[in-house]
Amino acid sequence: MKELLLLLCTVFYCLFFLSQEIISNQGEYYLIANKSIVFTIGEVVIKTGTDGVFDLTQGFHQSHWNITAMEDHNSSFDATIFPNPTTEILKIKTTMFKGVNYSIYNAQGKLISSDKLYLEQTSINVSQLPVGSYLVNLNDANKNLKTYKLIKTR
């Protein structure tokens, strides 16, 4: 009986206390100014919070992801923004550009830029924008058509 109890305690110890070890074959280290981040790839994400500019994941480490999103207000309107993430030029492509306006908002909801779409592919210079997350809203006569999350890098 003592041997069985000892065996069960040993198995429990190995499963419980040694299970927190991470063996990873890939990861990354970033150092910007006086802040650093170290992560491994392949672990589960527990919770991600954002202030609109920076993303913070609590719990396990993860790879560097840029999540882009789209909110579809009008399914019959077809448009694409690219490249996303971008550094200098953002392109908006749609065949239904007549009467459509774009607006770019920062993370605090402040209007940064707006204009009309003049061609099937409109280029917008975003090089002057600080690094961060932005919303690109496409609308027609004050009616939302699509909203995209834009990632501005470098």
Beta content: 35-45%
Task: Provide the number of structural domains.
Answer: 2
CATH topology description of the largest domain = Immunoglobulin-like
Distance between the termini: 66 Å
* Shape category: elongated
CATH superfamily membership of the largest domain: Macroglobulin (MG2) domain
Major sheet characteristics = 5 strands, antiparallel
In short:
This protein is mainly beta. Helix content is 10%, strand content 44%.
Characterization of this structure:
By secondary structure, the protein is mainly beta. The chain has one helix at 2-17; strands at residues 27-32, 35-40, 47-50, 55-58, 70-72, 80-82, 89-93, 100-105, 111-116, 121-125, 132-140, 143-152. The strands form four sheets. A five-stranded antiparallel sheet has the order 5-12-11-8-9, with no helix packed on it. β3 (47-50) and β4 form a beta hairpin. It is elongated and about 85 Å long. Residues 61-67 have low confidence and may be disordered.
Summarize the helices and strands and which ones pair or pack:
Blueprint: H1 2-17, E1 27-32, E2 35-40, E3 47-50, E4 55-58, E5 70-72, E6 80-82, E7 89-93, E8 100-105, E9 111-116, E10 121-125, E11 132-140, E12 143-152
Antiparallel strand pairs: 1-2, 3-4, 5-12, 6-7, 7-10, 8-9, 8-11, 11-12
Which properties best describe this structure?
elongated; single chain; 154 residues; three-stranded antiparallel sheet; 2 domains; mainly beta; Immunoglobulin-like
